[in-house]
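Thread amino acids onto this structure.
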């Protein structure tokens, strides 16, 4: 590639090799479907897909596979709720307890209770959010974990 960057055959071979490597680094399910189950797999596949697209070589099938892989990676980056009903109940409970505690402390003139309630209910909301928010790819990786017959990178 460095000796002759314009050589179409070399570019095609490189693009094809990169496309094959994206399949090899991913985990494989029992039905032989490649899936990304680790951050390392996602990083490698993203870099490879970007390089294949940048090369513009390998043929239509390789380019389409690279674009599809890129879309899959981007879709997996979306944040979503793990057990949304549970998260909603816990967040509502934390907020409700915090509001009741704050109002009660305020009615009794207890500034310490108001401050403590505010801090603790906010901390509880942060914990609920951190515990129940995840990226879509992580949910998919958890879902297919039992189906993986070969772990990738």
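Threaded sequence (153 positions):
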């Amino acid at each position: 590639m460095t000796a002759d960057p314009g050589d179409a055959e070399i570019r095609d071979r490189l693009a094809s090799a990169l496309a094959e490597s994206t399949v090899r680094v991913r985990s494989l399910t029992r039905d032989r479907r490649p899936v990304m189950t680790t951050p390392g797999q996602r990083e490698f596949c993203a870099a490879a897909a970007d390089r294949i697209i940048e090369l513009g070589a390998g043929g239509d099938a390789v380019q389409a596979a690279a674009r599809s892989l890129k879309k899959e990676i981007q879709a997996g980056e979306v944040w979503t709720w793990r057990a949304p009903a549970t998260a909603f109940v816990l967040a509502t409970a934390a907020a409700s307890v915090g509001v009741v505690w704050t109002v009660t402390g305020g009615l009794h003139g207890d500034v310490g209770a108001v401050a403590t309630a505010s801090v603790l209910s906010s901390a509880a909301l942060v914990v609920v959010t951190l515990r129940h928010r995840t990226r879509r790819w992580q949910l998919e990786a958890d879902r297919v974990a039992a189906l993986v017959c070969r772990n990738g990178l």
